[in-house]
Automatic annotation (TrEMBL):
<dbReference type="InterPro" id="IPR036291">
    <property type="entry name" value="NAD(P)-bd_dom_sf"/>
</dbReference>
<keyword id="KW-0560">Oxidoreductase</keyword>
<dbReference type="InterPro" id="IPR050259">
    <property type="entry name" value="SDR"/>
</dbReference>
<protein>
    <submittedName>
        <fullName>SDR family oxidoreductase</fullName>
    </submittedName>
</protein>
<dbReference type="InterPro" id="IPR057326">
    <property type="entry name" value="KR_dom"/>
</dbReference>
<comment type="similarity">
    <text>Belongs to the short-chain dehydrogenases/reductases (SDR) family.</text>
</comment>
<dbReference type="GO" id="GO:0016491">
    <property type="term" value="F:oxidoreductase activity"/>
</dbReference>
<feature type="domain" description="Ketoreductase">
    <location>
        <begin position="5"/>
        <end position="173"/>
    </location>
</feature>
<dbReference type="InterPro" id="IPR002347">
    <property type="entry name" value="SDR_fam"/>
</dbReference>
<dbReference type="Pfam" id="PF13561">
    <property type="entry name" value="adh_short_C2"/>
</dbReference>
Length: 236
């Protein structure tokens, strides 16, 4: 059993974020989630925050620190998509996605690092995507934001690695969520053909990789990109 930690997950009220929160709770950690609306799963503390607003993130951290103590593990999971072909994509479509997915992770990591440096311990886990490395037509904004997380994690590793802090990226492929469930059956079948595993992942399969990265067992892994994609993005 790993040491019990104080964990904060952004966007923990639904989808993958919710599954991550549930998995950390099941392992006995003190878990807080940020949400713009809605609540995290049972056993979590929900703090309302928007990753595009540094002041709201700061207030969220303060609330968690008061209740659970310093945040030791952060998972940057909050993300948006605004899929459009390049020629139809406006500058706002691009910058809004970057501001949430990439700059939002920067704001989170910056605020979290204060307590981690002091404690000489920290686990930073950034949720990227297979398309961050594979690319995807119609997702120039999203894939750019997701590949940017890799540079962020690797630079944080070089900067803070000697302080007992690790920073890693996970790159999920297709996951069974409300979003993928809405895809037409034929589209789902086509996607599954391109995945060597022949199926989508469950959100729990992604969550278990993240809880392992936060554990004592993964203390010497930093700056890594770990795919959870059934082989879809091999070689990247």
């Amino acid at each position: 059993m790993s040491t019990q930690r104080t964990v904060l997950i952004t966007g923990g009220n639904r989808g993958i974020g919710r599954a991550i929160a549930e998995e950390f709770v099941a392992l006995g950690h003190r878990v807080a989630v940020t949400a713009r609306s809605g609540e995290g799963p049972e056993g979590t503390l929900t703090v309302h925050a928007d990753v595009t607003d540094a002041a709201s993130l700061d207030a969220a951290f303060t609330a968690v620190e008061e209740q659970y103590g310093p945040v030791e593990v952060v998972v940057a999971n909050a993300g948006i998509t605004r899929d459009l072909l390049l020629l139809r994509m406006t500058e706002a479509d691009f910058t809004d996605v970057i501001d949430t997915n990439l700059t939002g992770a920067f704001r989170l990591v910056k605020r979290a690092s204060k307590g981690m440096i002091k404690a000489r311990f920290g686990r930073i886990i950034l949720v990227s995507s297979v398309v961050g490395l594979l690319g995807s037509a119609g997702q120039i904004n999203y894939s750019a934001s997701k590949s940017g997380l890799i540079g962020l994690a690797r630079s944080v590793t070089r900067e803070l690695g000697s302080r007992g802090i690790t920073a890693n990226v996970i790159a999920p492929g297709f996951i069974e969520t409300d979003m993928t469930a809405e895809l037409p059956e034929q589209t789902q079948a086509d996607y599954k053909k391109s995945i060597p595993a022949g199926r989508f992942a469950t959100p729990t399969e992604v969550a278990k990789v993240i809880t392992w990265l936060a554990s004592d067992d993964a203390a010497y892994i930093s700056g890594a990109v770990i795919p959870v994609d059934g082989g879809l993005g091999m070689g990247h």
